Please model this.
Amino acid sequence: MSAELLEIIIPLDLRYKYSAGPHLGAFLRALKVGKIIANRCPGCRRLQLPPTPVCGRCHIGMGQDWVELSHQGTVISYSFVVDPIFDPGLGDMRPVPYTIAAIVLDGGPDVAFFHKLQENDPSKVKEGMRVEAVFKPLQERAGTIEDIIHFRTIG
Amino acid sequence: MGERVAIIGIGQTDHRYLRSDINHEEMIYEAVRKALEDADLTIRDIDTIIIDNMDLFEGHYLSDAMSVDGAGMYLKPGLKMNTGGTSGGTAVVTGWHHIASGLFETALVIGWEKQDAAPSISALVTAREPLYDRGMGAGAVGIFATMGLKYMREYGCREEHAALARVIMADNARRNPHAHLKLDLTIEDVLKSRVLVWPVRLLHMSPTSCGAAALILSNENKSRRAAKPPVWIKDIETAHREQSVWRGGCVEPNPKVTAIEVAASKLYRRNNITKPSRDIDVWELYTPSSWALFPWMELFSICEKGEAWRLVEKEVIRIEGEIPIEPSGGVVSTNPIGASGLIRVAEAALQLRGEAGERQVTKKAETAIATAWGACHWIVILYLSKHL
Amino acid sequence: MARRVGVVAVAQTKFEESKPTLHLQDLVFEPVQKILQETGLKFTDDGTGIDATISCSQDHWDGWTISSKNVVDGAGGHLRPEEKVAEDGAYALYYAALSIIGGHYDCILVVAHTKESQVDGRLIENAGLEPLYSRMLGLDFTSCAALQATQYMHRYGISSQQCAQVVVKNRRNAIYNPYAQSPGELTVTDVLGSPMLSDPIRLLDAKPVSDGASALIVAVEEKVKKWTDKPVWIEGMGCCYDRHYLGYRDLTDPISLTEAAKRAYNMARISNPRKNIDLVELSEYYSYQELLWSEGLLLCERGDGGRLLESRATQIGGDIPINPSGGLLSGVPVNVAGLNRAVEAVAQLRGETGGSQIDGAKRALIHGTGGVCGQMHCVIILKKG
Model:
């Protein structure tokens, strides 16, 4: 008998209907109206962005102490992604290159927000640079993280 | 306190990118058979079996249920743990608790991953918060890019140092018959390899490997009569971390305290380890990227903050050095995720037995630290010793 | 046992067909918050509170790889020991007890969660079958259970009516359970008239889709006595695996359940389970399973599951009541199931269950199972302190 190896491709296609819950839900609804909001822990006073129901450090419920943050902030870290990754939203490989960044928004000093930068030229991106959120036009927003298209360089 | 626990059997497969010649059960069986042979036992001598695997990476739901025959779990008690990168370490800890309880005299601990089944990076995307994070990220790579960038800025370390770290791991791996990547690298090779997310290059990151490893643990009574000298697991410590990464935000961009420091300091204090670089002979640290090595060395108090890259520059971490780190070649050479943590323990145990062949460290090896790290900055630490 | 382990407190969410307003983090935080408030205990490093957490969830159901990551905040895992058992919740309790007996920890919080409503569970179950020769047949756990049910019923003359009576009993028991998802007065006709899923399993013969979470705190004897005046002790535990491929198993003979039960009985020094145990909370994903598992647990002879039910012994008021809480057939999520059985049993032993209270109950058996057709089982014996 020949030693032919058999391999069979079996796709696993699972679709999930995720609930945002009250805290994340509030954040996503705020994005739709062009606001970026964080919630504050009643214990350690840290902001959580995006919001969560529990503060991991204090282990208490985060409550409803909402803080609206500026659309402007400072890049504290960035990465140029050149190796494509599968995007479950697209159902295909995500086009590269793109730049992801950790941004500290004005008004939210203890938390960094991850999003994309408009700038894809490595020579033009550095730590400390100032950026500003660019939202989709109001009628195109859906209450998702992609209501912010990216952050553009300012100043 | 509970029963004392030792490793009396060690087995691992030769780890590869593809193992299309066998299915997952056969792969598990390879490791299990080797561990049993090593301990001169049969499956009948095993009281319980603990297995770990990242099911979603494989696509199998309840992957332990699907591995019963290969793992020898038929009509035996056992369970499955699953904690990401730390899984292999967690599984050993789980086995440790089983023996310590006195309810079982021997335990077989198995870790495995057969990543040729599905690209785990895609599954790893599901580690991110689905509602705002999954499109954003770059898998595990992004964390190390941030880590590397920060370390270079703060301490003057250069790309060449991470490249050297990688070269040392490759040199070690070539002496390890089980290692997946046995590359012959120079610093230039590393610096020329493709950038994934700067400063992380392809060669800085661990491969996706298929492989399995198995350990047999037993209590003091059985260990003293085992076929080979027992390697004692003297203590363990686990610390996880709030979901500060992978959630579209980072609540502590510059964490003041890490899980590694918390867990390591507890373990050191309990065991009177006051100068780790002196008190521990071999370090099988789980460093999934060359860029993680420097912060890890400092967080484990092997050296002061900012000094790790200098130690690497002096090559003291080599097999012949005073502070040998990952003589196996480490996770950057071999990474079957469910097994990686376990392999660290297996390799450390081989060192303490003096059975590590060409990768045996030159200095006398009586104590070791083996760790497992998970992508949310979780850590599992195991302290091994030749003596009780 | 060198160190005695007991339950300090229990908590759970209500079970519902769907909890669309809750994120998974909310779902886990709810019972954890309740249990912490009720006990006043905190997560500590100095032995004055909870030493570690053991969580329980499945990546496939959560849609998260490393699913415990999603709940680590609520489960108290920040810079602390937290491990995840990727098995039914009864195993999480089993492991927690082991870890305390071994002496490394004194007090552990156990929490299990699943939100079945967010995904098509049948596809997940299909992925629980062997990929190269089972999955492509379009099997899921229900169709496999139907194979087991058919064989079992044929071998021993178990009838669909008897299976339906299990549903009637359990749904009626659930009326007294404020956390139950689907309490109700059903008749055998209702059950036998419900749509067929996979012959002979009908819609009402199967556990409904459910969302929810349960939590428990266990501790070493001295601390249990300090922190509660209604201790419940863990007297015996056992778990066991059977083989995976259905064709290798005798599906009418639950050997891995009997093996697990015997281990638990030996540890608890129980020689006559039917007499020594006062109530049973088992995991019946399908109506026939309650009959089959009662045989596996040696509450009756092999083949007598139907007769046991008809003797009314397993009703509240009988000599071996099974699932006075309403069981899984009244709506309990997978994974949470085994842990929730323990939560219910503890409430029974403490006399806190109101209308379904089993008078004078001293010993309870709880059971969790996982895998196709009950491939693996975990049995724990609890005793009132």
Summary: DSSP finds 14 helices and twelve strands in chain B.
